[in-house]
Specification:
single chain; alpha/beta; 28 helices; 25% strand; binds adenosine-5'-diphosphate
Length: 890
């Protein structure tokens, strides 16, 4: 049953109210009513009765129809309001209609009330429906406007009629930019023509199209969108528009791309990757891992990674690992694992827990095969240990090596080496340089003047430090006052190593050697000069001897001439002898064989003899020749070596006379306390100062030229100097060119006090017994003839033996000799051996050696063999006589 219309009637007149109700009934409207006449009742009725329509009189006792309308407007504005009035008052009616009444009915025309009610209700319904649809449209429009999707509506040709703000936000195109245009303005060219064709085919057929586009924004940026496009149709089903609802999927696309890239990266990664679930069971292994451990994903899925384990990894480290991982931390460490084929390998693993809503969902294991690395590390450790050991060895080598070692850094200024710093030095460094605590110090701090004194060091060290080319050099380091041999190396730019040794001693030896070499060369030159001189010195007397000897053969030569020639021959003999004996004496001096043989010597007598000897030959009347004896004859007998002293005096006096053409030559001695000072002075040519030392060297002469004026061998002074030194003294020289010279030397005064001094000549008058048998053992016929002549002159019998063996047989034969004169150097058997044997067989037989070799050694050998005495060749007649007298008269 249809609900009855609720009608509120505002009417003070019951009659009018009934009339109204009657008319409503008549119009067929089913209704219930409430009649009110006061304002209060009216308000209450609106609220409680909730009328569907209000019919109100205008003139009421307590209020009026206008007020009733306003109250309704306020309380319930949607209830239709019809003014029912009896007075036709257009103005009031207009007023009330303006104020919002739906209609008015004049009471005279009350029959119209039914239609008025229906129209009013219809109008209200229409308004309500309109409002409702407006509200819906508003919501729809808001929904479209505020839609998070971008919405495009086009007409049937595809021209844009509407775009929502999201579209503008996404594409950058405003409504004005795109209205009337085709959505192809968004085309990027990335979607195929076929795709667009499908789209159009679908939607023009009335279907829905779903798909994705990659479009271009207004600013040229790409974006991805997923689109849902459908046609909009009218009531007849004809397509009027197309609606595109699109969603920006750029981010999703990018994430998808990223995910794709990441999964590709994981899959293609050169490192092994395992993903497990939260319990550690394998969910995924990448191909690298699968190929490396030779297990496929199917082999290992759902298993624990422990299946690879060799079992060496301790439980403790597993626990630590799990504790870490479960608390959401990353764990990294090494595992010793095994492949499917059993090959062991070491891997370095980083395990990271993956969180989903703060709960661990997975673990990701990224591992790297470090087997080779491990091996390398092991090798490196061994290498390091070896290096350390070798370092230690080298260090101890450096520390203990005799050479100095310094590792330094060169300091350059404008490319020039100006200083260096000692970084490391060894123990020997200090000993060899005298520098202490040098580490970390600059050389210029340690030796302030070194740059000035030894600039070359900086140049060499700097060069090696820059070029790296090793150098070796020897240098006198002024600031350290030593010679150094240095090897410099550089293993690093601007650094250098110096290994060095002090070679001062070697250098001195070298210097000495060089000077000896120079001396030897000089001596060689002198020897050449000597040979030249000596040949002259020997030739001159030899020529005289040969020449005059040949003249003597002439039997018609007058006796006076013969005597004269013989004298010349004698003098030449002496000259020759002196030259040769000089040479021999020098060589014995050289070999150290010349010894001092002190004996009683009458030096006054010696001086006289020397004087006499020279006076005989002195021919120059311009020169006064004299000698000086400081002691009386009694005190002039001393112990000295007379032979050497005599030789010295002869040499010096000989020179003085030789080099003095006028003035005087004087020689002698003075007594100075217990020294005898011998001197030889002359007023001759003198000797230049620079030659004062040199002339004492052998073969030295002031004038060494072949055309020199004065004869001589250059041996006299060398010999004299040697003899003076043997006598324990030094020869001195004072000389000035053109003024003359003084040679002097001292010997100890060791006098022999003699009570009687016999005249030697007298003592030697003692007769030698005649007719004695003398055995002369001599291989050289000339020597033998000379000797036998002397002996026969003394009326002695001469027997000859040519060698030692013959001598022995004679000595053992029936005719034993009274005395033997024994030569030493002989063929078959020498004199020493022969004497030894003779003395063994006949100890009483006197054997006197006659020898040319008269040095100390020979003398000892001769005496040791048993000889009773010896005579030096060439035989001095006096000496021979003295010996014969001595032994034959025993
Ligand atoms: P020699 O006299 O045989 O040449 P010496 O050794 O005796 O050899 O002397 C060496 C040199 O010394 C002489 O050649 C001479 O130049 C110089 N000399 C020696 N004595 C004298 C002197 N009294 N006056 C000047 N020069 C001398």
């Amino acid at each position: 049953m249809e609900a009855k219309l609720k009608i509120l009637i505002v009417e003070d007149l019951q009659l009018d109210a009934n009339l109204i109700k009657h008319e409503i009934n008549r119009s067929g409207i089913q209704f219930i009513d409430q009649i009110v006449e006061t304002q209060k009742d009216y308000i209450e009725a609106i609220q409680k009765f909730s009328p569907d329509i209000i019919l109100s009189d205008y003139y009421l006792p307590t209020f009026d129809g206008m007020l009733a309308l306003l109250i309704r407007k306020k309380i319930s504005p949607n209830i239709p309001f019809i003014l029912v009035t009896g007075t036709l008052n257009e103005e009031i009616a207009v007023e009330v209609m303006k104020a919002g009444a739906n209609d008015y009915v004049i009471k005279e025309h009350i029959t119209r009330i039914g239609t008025a009610i229906k129209t009013a209700l219809e109008k209200v319904e229409i308004i309500r429906l309109k409002e409702e649809s407006e509200e819906k449209l508003k919501i729809l429009s808001l929904a479209v406007d505020q839609n998070p999707a971008s919405i495009v509506i086009t007409d049937i040709q595809g021209n844009i009629e509407y775009v929502n703000p999201k579209f503008t936000l996404l594409t950058g195109y405003s409504s004005n930019d795109v209205i009337g245009k085709n959505p192809r303005i968004l085309k990027s060219g990335m979607t195929s023509i076929q795709e667009y064709k499908n789209l159009w085919d679908t939607i023009t057929r009335g279907g829905e199209w779903r798909g994705e586009f990659q479009n271009l924004k207004k600013n040229g940026e790409f974006y991805f969108e997923s689109a849902w496009i459908s046609p909009i149709t009218d009531e007849s089903g004809a397509i009027t528009h197309f609606l595109a609802v699109k969603e920006d999927i750029t981010e999703r696309k990018n994430s998808e791309k990223k995910i794709k890239t990441l999964s590709e990266a994981i899959e293609q990664s050169p490192t092994c990757i395992i993903i497990t679930d939260a319990n550690g069971k394998i969910e995924f292994v990448n191909s690298k891992f699968a190929s490396f451990v030779q297990y496929s994903l199917d082999d290992v899925k759902g298993k624990y990674p422990l299946i690879f384990n060799v079992g060496h990894n301790c439980q403790e480290s597993y626990k630590g690992m799990w504790d870490n991982l479960k608390s959401g931390n990353i764990w990294q460490g090494e595992f010793n694992n095994r492949k499917k084929d059993g090959t062991k390998f070491w891997e370095y693993v980083i395990i990271s827990p993956l969180l989903e809503n703060n709960v661990i969902s997975n673990y990701i294991l990224v591992s790297e095969d470090i087997t080779e690395k491990k091996k390398m590390v092991d090798n490196l450790i061994v290498a390091k240990e070896n290096a350390e050991e070798s370092e230690e060895r080298f260090h101890s080598l450096f520390e203990n090596m005799i050479e100095g070692f310094a590792y330094c850094k060169m300091i350059f200024e404008n490319g020039n080496p100006v200083d260096f710093i000692y970084i490391e030095v060894n123990n020997s460094f200090e000993a060899l340089t005298g520098l202490k605590n040098v580490r970390g110090k600059k050389v210029t701090e340690l030796i302030p003047g070194i740059r000035q004194s030894d600039p070359l060091i900086f140049q060499i060290y700097g060069r090696v430090a820059l070029t790296g080319k090793p150098e070796r050099f020897e240098m006198y380091v002024e600031s350290l006052n030593d010679w150094y041999s240095v090897s410099v190396y550089s293993s690093k730019k601007e650094f250098f190593i110096a290994v060095f040794d002090v070679i001062t001693e070697r250098k001195n030896t070298e210097k000495a050697l060089i000077s000896s070499k120079e001396k030897a060369e000089e001596s060689d030159r002198l020897k050449t000069a000597f040979l030249h001189n000596i040949s002259h010195e020997i030739r001159t007397p030899l020529n005289a001897i040969i020449g005059f000897s040949s003249l003597l053969v002439n039997s018609n030569l007058p006796p006076q001439k013969r005597k004269e020639f013989l004298k010349i021959i004698n003098v030449s003999n002496d000259q020759l002898l002196s030259v040769i004996s000089g040479i021999i004496s020098l060589s014995t001096l050289d070999t150290g064989q010349e010894k001092i043989q002190e004996k009683e010597t009458d030096i006054n007598e010696m001086l006289t003899n020397v004087y006499d000897q020279f006076l005989v030959n002195k021919t120059n009347p311009e020169v006064t020749f004299s000698y000086h004896q400081a002691l009386s004859d009694k005190l002039a007998v001393i112990y000295t070596d007379p032979v050497k002293l005599m030789q010295i005096l002869i040499n010096l006096v000989g020179n003085a006379l030789k080099f003095t053409k006028n003035g005087k030559v004087r020689f002698g001695y003075t007594l100075e306390t217990n020294q005898l000072n011998f001197f030889v002075e002359d007023t001759g040519i003198g000797i230049p100062t620079e030659m004062h030392e040199l002339i004492f060297e052998r073969f030295r002469q002031v004038d060494n030229s072949a055309t020199r004026k004065y004869g001589g061998t250059g041996l006299g002074l060398a010999l004299s100097k040697g003899y003076v030194e043997l006598l324990g003294s030094k020869i001195r020289l004072q000389s000035e060119i053109g003024k003359g010279s003084v040679f002097a030397f001292t010997i100890p005064y060791k006098p022999v006090i003699k009570t009687t001094r016999q005249n030697e000549t007298q003592s030697r008058q003692l007769s030698i017994p005649v007719g004695k048998n003398i055995l002369v053992v001599e291989d050289d016929i000339t020597n033998f003839v000379l000797l036998s002549k002397l002996l026969t002159m003394l009326k002695l019998n001469v027997i000859r033996a040519e060698n030692g063996e013959v001598a022995i047989s004679i000595c053992c034969g029936a005719n034993q000799p009274d005395l033997v004169l024994m030569d030493i150097k002989m063929p078959i058997m020498d004199g020493i051996e022969a004497t030894r044997r003779i003395k063994k067989l006949n100890p009483g037989l006197i054997v006197i050696a006659v020898t040319a070799c008269a040095n100390e050694n020979d003398r000892i050998q001769i005496l040791e063999s048993g000889c009773d005495g010896y005579i030096v060749k060439p035989i001095n007649q006096q000496v021979l006589l003295a010996n014969l007298e001595k032994y034959l008269t025993q």
